[in-house]
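no rush on this but wanted to send it before i forget. what follows is a protein written twice so to speak, once as letters and once as structure tokens for the fold. mainly i need to know what kind of three dimensional shape the backbone takes. thanks a lot i owe you, the record is right below.
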Amino acid sequence: MSTTRRLVLASALAASALTALPVLAEGTYPTKTVSVVVSYPPGGDTDAIARLFADKLGQRLKQSVIVDNKPGAGGAIGNGFVGRAAPDGYTLLFTPNPFTTAPLVMKLSGGAAYDVLGGYEAVINTASQPLVLVANPAVGVKTLPELVAAAKAGKTVSYASPGAGSPMHIVGEWLNKAAGVKFSHVPYRGVGPSVTDVVAGHVDTAWVTFGAVRQYLQAGKLIPLAIGDAQRSKLAPNVPTLVELGYKDVVVGAWNGFFAPKGTPAPVVKLLNEHLNAILKEPEVVEKLAVFGALPAGGAPAALAQLNQREYAVMGKAIRELGISAE
């Protein structure tokens, strides 16, 4: 072999080795602490579920996995932070579905701005959380048709949500339009305060997740009227859906999942997805998710990507038609 040919071959091998370096590095992932960003304060459902997954993931990766709370701007601050982070698998986002709708209802700029569809790698849809409409018994109704009839007869009805632009706000306004009523929206800063006030009777009804009201439903302090999902929930099989009650197009649920910055290596995403799918099958995890009114989801990264895209289109259309804004 000539000297020239040896040099060309050596150069080609060197270039090939450089190209393969990320793959080799990924084979040892993770070699340091992994941060899971939660775009909400500590103490809520999202934070608690994130800590459950972080603990389990750390055990499987044999590396520290910590939760880093970055609240603000309806979750947009933390979302934007992850979107700008290094795509190396060491910064992940655990988020509920306001991740998808926030840019549709808020004017985001600077550190709060982010690209819902093009700025992240989907990792896994971890769970779904059916939305339920509950009423204080003092309202005097036991079913949604009774509530709608009372409103049409002149009764003033209010509903709470954990914030303007939230899935609970969207389903509330969508129901208003479909039923031809005007339940007054009362936005709160989170699910907790909205539940407190509907139990106390300061607001008539509320759209919430099951975990937040389970104890009050069992004690008879709140009455479940309808589910926002297309099908009845295993968590409350006797509660009818809005679809069953005649509002066939009104389908809104809650979900959560993991995202990584765009460009995170595919082998890293695959590894995280495999571990989290295994975690979702653990009986302890299934049991703890149920406490928060959540049902395990799982699946390939593509399933979350498709869910995100579909919700962006469907909820975007509803938000525009209903004139929903977080301002």
About this structure: DSSP finds eleven helices and eleven strands in the chain.
